[in-house]
Amino acid sequence: MGAPPGSQVSALPANLPFRLISKTIGSGAYASIRKATPLNAPSPVIAVKFIHKEHAFRVGRLRPKQIQLELALHQQVCPHKNIIRFLSTGEDSSWIWLALELAEGGDLFDKIEADGGVSPE
Questions:
Q1: For residues 97 and 51, is the Cβ–Cβ distance under 8 A?
Q2: Minimal CA–CA distance to 102: which of 84, 76, 114, 117?
Q3: Which tens digit of pLDDT belongs to each residue from 57-83?
Q4: 104: buried, middle or exposed (CB in 10 Å: 19+, 13-18, 0-12)?
Q5: Rounded distance, CA 60 to CA 36, Å?
Q6: Is 107 exposed, middle or buried (0-12, 13-18, 19+ CB in 10 A)?
Q7: In this predicted model, which residue has the larger pLDDT, 7 or 49?
Q8: What share of the chain is helix, strand, coil (3-state, %, to 5)?
């Protein structure tokens, strides 16, 4: 079994175009999210999704094409006013990262569930 997304099996990419300012603020089956800012400014605060390639491919059973599809979808739907803004992406031998607009306030699914779901209309 591979390493979890937030593990230190592989160091995060070097020479990122932003400065990480938090520990992991969210994680899923094959990725983790951290807050970051521009290298020489305190704002805006953004979210950076880190996907560990080996973990995603081996344990998450993803194929490289599926990750490329996720990147393409983010790029194609921006800039829509109701969708988190995609800023940039990059990768090294171990990681793929996506820089996205930060939406604080918790998980959207949790909010929908607490409100009793979504009406069919």
A1: yes
A2: 84
A3: 888 788 889 989 988 988 888 777 778
A4: exposed
A5: 25
A6: exposed
A7: 49
A8: 25, 30, 45
68: left (phi over 0), alpha (psi -120 to 50) or beta: alpha
| DSSP structure string for 30-53 | SEEEEEEEETT-S---EEEEEEEH
Residues 15-54 have pLDDT tens digits of 899 999 999 998 888 889 999 999 988 899 999 999 998 8
- Phi (first) and psi of residue 54, to 5 degrees: -60, -45
Strands 86-91 and 95-101: antiparallel
DSSP secondary structure string for all residues of 88-102: EEEE-SSEEEEEEE-
Handedness of CA 42, 88, 55, 102 (dihedral sign): positive
